[in-house]
Specification:
- The chain is mainly α.
- The chain has helices at about 10-25, 30-40, 40-50, 55-65.
- Helix 2 crosses helix 3 (about 40-50) and helix 2 (about 30-40) crosses helix 4.
- The N and C termini lie far apart (about 35 Å).
Amino acid sequence: MIKQEMTKEEAIKIQVAKELVEFRLRKGFTQTQLAERAGKRQSQIARMESGRANVSFKTLDEIVSRAGGKITLKIVD
């Protein structure tokens, strides 16, 4: 079996997915509840949480802010 290296883009998608899942769980929401608050479909939330979706910053911010959260960004060298 050949082990593939994860691209930077894939790593970012996985990190965003992880953060979204953790946020949703901290808020005590199901995927359906988060989707309803955000005006999205549950299947969209599921794809985002699995790391399969390309999520724009705007979309992520809409979801998080409508659920009572905010996004912070940290750039390091």
